[in-house]
Write a structure and sequence with these properties.
Two copies of one chain form a homodimer.
Chain A lengths: L1 H26 L2 E7 L5 H10 L6 E7 L4 H7 L5 E5 L8 H7 L10 E5 L16 E7 L6 H4 L1 H6 L2 E5 L11 H11 L4 E4 L8 H17 L1
Parallel strand pairs in A: 1-4, 1-5, 2-3, 2-4, 5-6, 6-7
């Protein structure tokens, strides 16, 4: 019975996600659903990406249970941004995104980031109309995360391992993260970065630019 | 409609949680629902607590989406432990706990830890029959967490701020965490610890012993 309800909710969500995707495609905007556990550094990654955008026109939808801190951080970079407060819900869904599409200049964007609620579980189940999912993992979360939270690693096109500057101070084996993540998702693209020191960010932005560009041409 | 379904699920859950609680009370065991985001160090805190247990009889229920790594880590300390795999679900519920109660020697325990799935949102909504909720926050997650994930801070009796040894290497204001957490929950007991260096753990274990002891007497 419970499974039936959940399946219905997911089917309704997927239908709205397909409608969102049509709108994004019509506007020629490439959409990234950015997911991680709490405090892995999603907003910091967006700040650093915006600082290196170099002509790429980026918009952001911020998802949080409460507050507008993240949208304020993004606004400083002059990017169009909308804050969604889920009011308790632990993930964004397609309907929440559909509701705010009129508030963004989609035709003037190359790339739209949808920053999901900090949660390593539920966001992976709900499509929002994205072209790809990207997940972020803080090295401080430990090397056991891929095997403990497999769905998000399986659903993502890229894994950004953040806070790599903390490596000397935590007992974490990054090679185990890479190995276990690849065992779950052999095509996963991986980056090691530090939003604090700037390490590794150029490779991430370069890949993002190429990936969004390919989409535009195709 | 969705709200109605959710309310029904929560009501059914609370009923089973009350039954669990009766069983725990009958056995004289004090039950702690331990919650945090992924990788904040719940299992590490349990390891350190077990190492300092000094006569306190502690059992553990481990909740994970997949895997049994955490139960294996607890077993080394000779504590009775049961692993629950939620198979995708992002939190434990009262029914999952009810199912495993027969697998633990409740009458021989003073204290039972229920380690929830790593998630800063959903576990706070589902009672499992606990006497109190304790939440753990890794300092690496940042000082914006109380205001972004208010429910868990409101529901918890104690907040353990972990990985305090990383303070020199992250741009995090611990006093802001304390201030915002207290604004949400004025009675919140707070500890700053490092499971890596051992700092602050004696105060935590001492408080836990006193709190479980009071329950036993009352």
């Amino acid at each position: 019975m419970k499974v039936k309800v959940a399946t219905k909710i997911l089917e309704a969500n997927d239908r709205i996600a397909r409608e969102n995707r049509k709108i994004f495609d019509g506007a020629g905007v490439f959409v990234v659903n950015l997911m991680s556990g709490p405090g892995a550094g999603k907003t910091s990654l967006l700040e650093k990406t915006l600082a290196k955008k170099d002509g790429l026109r980026i918009g952001v939808i911020e998802g949080d249970i409460a507050g507008s801190d993240d949208a304020e951080r993004i606004e400083i970079f002059g990017a169009p941004v909308v804050q969604i407060n889920t009011g308790g819900a632990c993930h964004l869904d397609a309907n929440m995104i559909s509701d705010v599409l009129g508030d963004l200049p989609l035709n003037e964007l190359d790339l739209l980031f949808i920053e999901n609620v900090g949660n390593l579980v539920c966001p992976a189940e709900f499509k929002v109309g994205e072209d790809m999912k990207v997940m972020l993992l803080s090295i401080a979360e430990g090397h056991d995360k891929p095997l403990k939270y497999p769905l998000m690693f399986q659903e993502s096109s890229a894994l950004v391992i953040n806070k790599i500057d903390l490596a000397p101070y935590v007992d974490v084996d990054v090679s185990k993260i890479r190995k276990d993540a690849l065992s779950l998702n052999p095509g996963l693209k991986m980056f090691e970065v530090s939003c604090r020191t700037g390490e590794g960010l150029d490779a991430w932005v370069q890949w993002l630019r190429e990936t969004a560009g390919k989409h535009r041409v195709s």
